């Protein structure tokens, strides 16, 4: 990954931070995007640099096109065009569908799909003109299976499957690829928000009998970002401990 520049959205903590650290450990210049958690983003950059890696932080709410465009200018000034985009930023607003407000529906669509639209379109030319550019969208097992109380999130995450396949076709002639990763339940702040009792029920249904660690997900992204994945495009890669077996 030497000389490659990778943008990871929502990289101040959780899975995004793990992805940023893994890509930096391969020699890439990494951009740690965040919305509000500036201190955590600064910590992530500091940790990468202290391990000999190259990273900067870049604030932008992915729902704001102008903020995303300003972030592109900052990245271009610092590192030049990007080669790899990881659309990782995502939120949940869980409640039973009967009680779900239109606002809860819209907020999840706005970040999890609208954000992907904004960031991907803003950096599309970079990825297309890169030598083997990579677009990696972080979906979820919930996009495949659905999940009680997550009608908004499941809809947004399954939307990424169609998006990824289409962009894979539109990028193909340039030699760049687009793939989706569908993690299972992963030990992060997002999972901590789920009631302990429900967490235990989910865990008991995982054949490998444990939640994913951030490194399990980040390692798969590292592979998709590498030249070793050159002939894989338009795919959904499951990393879920066997949950859909
Ligand atoms: P997390 O710990 O809640 O972290 C979310 C990250 O996204 C934070 O860095 C947050 O930054 C950022 N973010 C949120 N809204 C944003 C916005 N509008 N613009 C820019 N950044 C924004 O989440 P996670 O568990 O690591 O999840 C990361 C991704 O994996 C998500 O797409 C999630 O849907 C997916 N996923 C998670 C699991 C799981 O079990 N954890 C399973 C499958 C898939 P701020 O703090 O600054 O807002």
Automatic annotation (TrEMBL):
InterPro entries: KR_dom, NAD(P)-bd_dom_sf, Sc_DH/Rdtase_CS, SDR, SDR_fam. Signal peptide: none annotated. CDD domains: BKR_SDR_c. It comes from the Archaea. Keywords: Oxidoreductase. SUPFAM superfamilies: NAD(P)-binding Rossmann-fold domains. One of its GO terms (biological process) is monocarboxylic acid metabolic process. Residues 4-194 form the Ketoreductase domain. GO terms for molecular function: oxidoreductase activity. The keyword Ubl conjugation does not apply. NCBIfam families: PRK07231.1 (NF005559), PRK12824.1 (NF009464), PRK12826.1-2 (NF009466). Belongs to the short-chain dehydrogenases/reductases (SDR) family. This is 3-oxoacyl-[acyl-carrier-protein] reductase. It comes from Natronoarchaeum mannanilyticum.
């Amino acid at each position: 990954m030497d000389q490659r520049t990778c943008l990871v959205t929502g990289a101040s903590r959780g899975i995004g931070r793990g992805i940023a650290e893994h890509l930096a450990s391969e020699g890439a210049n990494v951009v740690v995007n965040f919305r509000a958690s500036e201190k955590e983003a600064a910590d992530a950059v500091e940790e990468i640099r202290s391990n000999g890696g190259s990273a900067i932080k870049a604030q932008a709410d992915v729902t704001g096109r102008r903020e995303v465009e300003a972030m592109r200018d900052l990245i271009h000034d610092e590192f030049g065009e990007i080669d790899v985009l990881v659309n990782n930023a995502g939120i949940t607003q869980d409640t039973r569908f009967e009680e779900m407000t239109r606002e809860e529906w819209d907020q999840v669509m706005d970040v999890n799909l609208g954000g992907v639209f904004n960031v991907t379109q803003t950096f599309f030319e970079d990825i297309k003109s890169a030598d083997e550019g990579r677009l990696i969208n972080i979906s979820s097992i919930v996009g495949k299976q659905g999940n009680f109380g997550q009608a908004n999130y499941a809809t947004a995450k399954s939307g990424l499957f169609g998006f990824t396949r289409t962009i894979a076709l539109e990028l193909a002639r340039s030699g760049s690829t687009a793939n989706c990763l569908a993690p299972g339940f992963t030990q992060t702040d997002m999972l901590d928000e789920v009631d302990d009792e429900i967490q235990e029920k989910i865990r008991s249904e995982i054949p490998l009998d444990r939640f994913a660690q951030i490194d399990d997900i980040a390692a798969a992204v590292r592979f998709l970002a590498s030249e070793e994945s050159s002939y894989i495009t338009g795919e959904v890669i499951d990393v879920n401990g066997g949950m859909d077996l």
